[in-house]
Amino acid sequence: MKYYIISGEASGDLHASNLVKELKKFDTRAEFRGWGGDLMFAQGVTIVKHYRELAFMGFKEVIGNLGTIMKNISLCKTDISTWKPDVLIFVDYPGFNMRIAEWAKKNRYKTVYYISPQIWAWKAGRAHKLKRDIDKMIVILPFEKNFYRKYGFDVSYVGHPLLDVIEDFVPDPEFISNNKLRNKKIIALLPGSRKQEIAKKLPIMLSIHKQFPEFSFVIAGAPGIEQNYYQSITGSDGDTQIVYNQTYNLLVNSEAALVTSGTATLETALLEVPEVVCYLGSKMSYEIGKRLVKVNFISLVNLIMDKMIVKELIQYDLTPKALSDELKKLIYDHTYRETMKANYKLLKENLGGPGASQRAAKEIYSFLSGMI
Fold it and tell me: Any idea of the CA torsion for 242, 282, 205, 228, to the nearest 10 degrees?
């Protein structure tokens, strides 16, 4: 069968690549084409457009790049029509994927959504559009199954695919020496995967470095973001290093982490690293979002547990003083650290066991086999 997969960011590329890996076990003659990144490409997916060309964050940024977005949507429709896949698989990235899904359904393509849009957080009414346009919904958060069942979806909960990724991860014993990080303990900085968010959050993260002279602040470099860009922000701070393609090794060797909201907050928790969650968008995007979002937390860690497990410093609360105060607690308050780690273990239990990617692939293949 021919599978067309659309993801629009680094986390989607990761989960889509693992899905492709598992789909190939069920369908040995599978062909793959889509929108994504290097990990999907490594699994044999023909990439039409890399996600780094698609990353627009926030309402203001989306509006400013509306012309580019509309051209991409047109290109995607044309490419699908030319290739004629047996199924379209949408991976998160709702602003783009829901538009393509509507068009695809009208043109009688089979549609699967893997990793649901977070419509339960805002505009839950969009579930009616998804119900109209999506043949099969596959969710990865435990509370999502009941949410979609209320709207009559064919929905399957497979668990979170990050558990597979974490389980397969083998720490590199040479990480510290290879990166010349032996002199000091490490604080990991994960400022995001887009230039927009890095430019906003990284300066604040770096502003507290001198208050922690016994630590090295080490940046997890995002794919596609050149080192010169980070150095334009770090300036002459020679003690701040950047490592690429080694985020998990960086985290497991760190005392604590300053993490941009998103999938990275969950990855950090599953690796049991004390963290503080940082969010800072444009003023317009934040003010609009604040009025629309209907959840109590911004990080996946707290959303899944439905309580404050990790501190969230959001917008106006993300100040150097607040960040410094929280980092001191993460480093020096033993009880605080151990309580957080104990909650991380409960988080893992709530997410179920490994095997999510395989279960998702089986659901998709069984669904398609029953329709052919």
Answer: 20
What's the rounded Cα separation, in Å, for the pair 153 and 116? 12
**Tens-digit pLDDT profile for residues 202-254:** 999 999 999 999 999 999 998 778 999 999 999 866 678 999 999 999 999 99
HSE-CB at 90 with a 13 A cutoff on CA atoms is: 29
Q: How far apart are CA 75 and CA 45, in angstroms?
A: 18
Contact of 137 with 148, CB cutoff 8 Å: yes
Which tens digits make up the pLDDT trace of 320-346?
999 999 999 999 999 999 999 999 999
Domains for the chain: give ranges and CATH numbers. Answer: 2-161+355-371 (3.40.50.2000), 168-350 (3.40.50.2000)
Q: For the chain, first and last CA: distance in Å? A: 10
Tokens 């457009």 found at = 49
Nearest-angstrom CA–CA distance, 274 and 298: 17
Question: What digits encode the pLDDT tens for the residues 149-171?
Answer: 999 998 999 999 999 999 999 99
Residue that the structure tokens 């990050």 belong to: 162
pLDDT band of residue 288 (cuts 50, 70, 90) is: very low
HEC states along 316-351?
Answer: HHCCHHHHHHHHHHHHHCHHHHHHHHHHHHHHHHHC
- What is the rounded (10 degree) CA torsion for 182, 224, 117, 88? -130
CA-atom Rg of the chain in angstroms: 21
Q: Are 24 and 31 in contact (CB under 8 A)?
A: no
Angle between helices 66-83 and 94-106 (to 10 degrees): 40
